[in-house]
Amino acid sequence: MSDNKIKLASNDLTSIDTANYTVKAVISDESEDRHGEIVVQDGWDFQEYKNNPIVLFGHDASAYPIGKTLDIEVNGSVTTATMQFAVDENPEAKTVWNLVKGGYLKTISVGFINVLRDGAKLLENKLLEISVVPVPANPNAITLAAETGVIEKKDLVWL
Questions:
Q1: Phi/psi of residue 142, each to 5°?
Q2: Which parts of 7-156 fold into alpha helices (H)?
Q3: Mean pLDDT per 10-residue run, the chain (159 residues)?
Q4: Can you give the pTM of this predicted structure?
Q5: Quick count: other Cβ atoms within 10 Å of Cβ 36?
């Protein structure tokens, strides 16, 4: 691992590349969220999102994006994304980046439109945006990330 890459202990963030201002994170999984819903991961529709792969802070669509998504992948019951922060283009992005890098902001949330549901199971969803947030709707990502191998258990320590 290069000196620019740091393994994180967090709810969603799995690694940071400080040279490229990128973060890989668990953005969604199939655990029940704080709204009592379960997002089925193989039901994601990323087509429209890939045309405008924005990353926001706190779901604030009226503000400039703080970054963009470089890669998004569904792997079983977990969806991850690699996001790059716009630190040179947006002063707020630089602030959020520093808070993420410092371990003060560690969680991700997704904004989406539900297309098909079966009770509490959200079967088909269109991703609209990914946000860095102080409090996510899904509090269980650290456990699931470790169980699925996205984060190794030995890496679940503070910086």
A1: -65, -45
A2: 47-51, 91-101, 141-148
A3: 43 74 91 91 97 96 97 94 96 96 88 96 97 77 42 41
A4: 0.80
A5: 8
